[in-house]
Amino acid sequence: MNARADSLQERFERQLAAQRADPYPDLAVRRRRLSALEALVGDNLERVAQAVNADFGRRPERETRLLEGFPALSSIRHARRRVGRWMRPRRRFASRWLLPGRSMLLPQPLGVVGIVSPWNYPLLLTVSPLAAALAAGNRAMLKLSEVTPLTSAELAALFAKYFSEDEVTAVQGDAAAGAAFSSLPFGHLLFTGAGRIGREVMRAAAESLTPVTLELGGKSPVIVAPQYPLEHAAERVMLGKCMNAGQTCVAPDYLLVPRGSEAAALEALRAATDRLYPDMPFNKDYAHVVSERHFQRLGAMLDEARARGAEIVALSSSMSQPDAARRRFPPLAVVNPPEELKLMREEIFGPLLPVIGYERIEEAVAFVNARERPLALYLFDRDAARVGRVLRQTLSGGVTVNDVFLHVAEESLPFGGVGASGMGAYHGRAGFETFSKLRPVFLQSRWATTWMLNPPYGGRFDRLLRWMLRR
Length: 471
Fold this sequence. Notes:
By secondary structure, the protein is of the alpha/beta class. It has 16 helices and 16 strands. Helix 2 runs antiparallel to helix 5 (149-162).
């Protein structure tokens, strides 16, 4: 259903009333909701994958099942198994001055949570934060992407089938609907998407002092250390760059290799691409760019690089030029590009790969640190001491060493950005806590002695205060 501002307000108030009637859902209710979410995904994954494929023009249904269905189900099952433990009050030690009183943290639902999901992984990036919100005992409103309308319509119908509207409701609509959605006074608002829109979402949420989690992406670097086998690094990099045709927030954005090894790196990258995606023009495992606008944006980056004389190398032996008719964009390397190019200043979000040489690992670290904080950093290195130095000297949302993406797949690790790549985190227990208020509670004892510090102040008070102030 396309959302109007009055319809959004109506839905929000209905959910808010339901939450006030049951402000602390018990374990059985939370598990029932998580089981309903699991059934929604598990029973309808093939239908959703077909809708995603239709929206993209081609996105392999196997890729959707692997990259969206599997992690979505994993996040739901992880939460359902552990939610009972997460819900428990957490004891904290009281200071000696407040004994025999007791301290604890009580996790409580925030109320109605808003989730704005993107087009690139429309199932996963709706379901994964929703699982955390439901585990925390909240109701949820979902704003689905207008860029993938068939998928959004399918998901909206499924949420209406598996949940009552006062538990979970999904809305569709354009940018105006998104702005109205972001203005609602949610208990918490999670947005996944571009940094430019994230700023607008945060500005809208600020009017009602709604806390936000922003997952914004950025230029995630890959550093290949000296002596690391280029063949292995190239395979993992190209897998990360070619899955969903690079339309992934944690996709490798640019590659830093020891100077002098650029030619060998390019050869290894091409060999890996040909092995993973043979016959690129007709390969059924390679996705198309989602829309004409996004295809043209990538084309403009490529044209600018060509106009500036940058060396462009095809990373597929069977396809060297984009196919505009089908929005099929092959992986292309841009070697040592000028830093002022748009592809070096903006997130690429596609299969263009700058390949840049460095003299010493410190130079590679400095190159990364001179830019905004990325959502992910990938380091290929078998020297443990050097790995430790790079980790300490850089800052990013998350890191995978000697592979790509895997820190995102681990439910026990929080997923989130830092600086320009976002704020806040979710996944697993971190997601439960994002959508909860860890409410501090102090339980006074009937044997409390705090009365001894009551006025009127006198000698007893002075003696106690001197004792309290001693080292």
